[in-house]
C-alpha cells in the first residue's frame, strides 16, 4: 500500500471582504510508495504550496482525501484527523520545510536542533552530538550556533530550518522551496541529505523552481499545468 495517497483533493479560499470564493486547486490525484520522491512543478499561484500545506494540515482540505500510512495510527485521512493526531504526526512523523523560519523566541540555533532530536526520544548526550553534526553539515557558522535565529540572514535561517526537519528523519518530509535562497554549495548539502533520507526510507514531496536540482533526484514529477483545477485536463505524473 502507498505511504501517501492524495485522491480527488480540492481546496478553496474565501475572500470575506469581497464575499468571493476562489478555487485554489481541484481534483488533484497522486500516490507515493515508501522512499519515493515526488516533485511538484508549476507557475506561481498554481496551488503547489496549497497541496503541501494541506498534507501538513496547515490548511484543512475541502474535498477528497489525503491518506497517510502512519506508524502510530495506520492509514489515516489527514482531512479528517483530530488535532491531537495532527500534532503527534507533526512532532514524530511528518516534517515540513518552508522558505520561512518560525521558531520559539529566545531559543538558540543549537537548542532548536537539539529539541527536535530530543522529541524523537534521543538522550541529551546524543542530541548534543547530532545537533552539532547537522549544523556543521549545513555550514552554519559555529559562531552562530548559540545565537538567536532572528539575527540570521535569509539563507542562514533556511539552512537551520532544513537541519531542524531532517535530523528527525521523518517518515514523510514536505519541502516547500527549500533551496530558494541558498548558494550552490548549500544546495549540494541539501541534496546530500535528501539522498540519505530517501535511502533510509523517507517519503518526500517537494516544490522546486530549480529544475536542475531535481534532475535525477525525483522519482516522479507532478506538473500543475496539467492538473484539472488549472487547465481542465487530467492530472499528470511524469517519471523522474
Q: What is the mean pLDDT? A: 88
* CATH architectural arrangement: 3-Layer(aba) Sandwich
SSE class:
alpha/beta
H and E order: EEEHEEHEHHHEHEHEHE
Q: Give the end-to-end Cα distance, rounded to a whole number of Å.
A: 21 Å
Number of E strands: 10
> Could you give a short account of the major beta sheet?
6 strands, mixed
Report the β-strand fraction as a percent range.
25-35%
- The total count of helices amounts to 8
Q: Which radius of gyration do the C-alpha atoms yield?
A: 18 Å
Fraction of residues in H or I helices: 25-40%
CATH class: Alpha Beta
Strand arrangement in the largest pleated sheet: 6-7-8-3-9-10
What is the CATH H-level superfamily? Answer: P-loop containing nucleotide triphosphate hydrolases
Shape: globular
- Low-pLDDT regions: 228-236
Organism: Virgibacillus halodenitrificans
Protein name: Phosphonate C-P lyase system protein PhnL
GO molecular function, one term: ATP hydrolysis activity
Family: Belongs to the ABC transporter superfamily.
Amino acid at each position: 500500500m502507498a505511504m501517501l495517497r492524495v485522491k480527488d483533493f480540492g481546496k478553496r479560499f474565501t475572500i470575506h471582504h469581497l464575499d468571493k470564493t476562489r478555487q485554489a486547486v481541484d481534483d488533484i490525484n497522486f500516490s507515493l510508495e515508501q522512499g519515493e520522491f515526488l516533485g511538484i512543478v508549476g507557475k506561481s499561484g498554481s496551488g503547489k504550496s496549497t497541496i503541501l500545506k494541506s498534507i501538513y494540515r496547515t490548511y484543512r482540505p475541502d474535498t477528497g482525501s489525503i491518506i497517510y500510512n502512519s506508524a502510530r495510527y495506520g492509514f489515516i485521512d489527514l482531512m479528517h484527523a483530530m488535532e491531537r493526531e495532527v500534532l503527534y504526526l507533526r512532532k514524530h512523523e511528518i516534517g515540513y520545510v518552508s522558505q520561512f523560519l518560525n521558531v520559539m523566541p529566545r531559543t538558540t540555533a543549537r537548542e532548536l536542533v537539539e529539541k527536535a532530536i530530543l522529541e524523537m526520544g534521543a538522550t541529551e548526550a546524543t542530541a548534543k552530538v547530532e545537533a552539532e553534526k547537522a549544523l556543521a553539515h549545513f555550514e552554519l557558522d559555529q559562531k552562530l550556533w548559540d545565537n538567536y535565529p532572528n539575527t540570521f540572514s535569509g539563507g542562514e535561517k533556511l539552512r537551520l530550518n532544513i537541519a531542524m526537519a531532517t535530523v528527525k528523519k521523518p517518515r514523510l518530509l514536505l519541502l516547500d522551496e527549500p533551496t530558494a535562497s541558498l548558494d550552490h554549495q548549500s544546495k549540494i548539502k541539501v541534496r546530500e541529505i535528501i539522498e540519505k533520507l530517501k535511502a533510509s526510507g523517507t517519503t518526500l514531496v517537494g516544490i522546486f523552481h530549480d529544475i536542475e536540482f531535481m534532475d535525477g533526484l525525483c522519482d516522479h514529477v507532478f506538473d500543475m499545468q496539467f492538473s484539472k483545477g488549472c487547465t481542465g485536463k487530467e492530472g499528470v505524473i511524469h517519471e523522474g
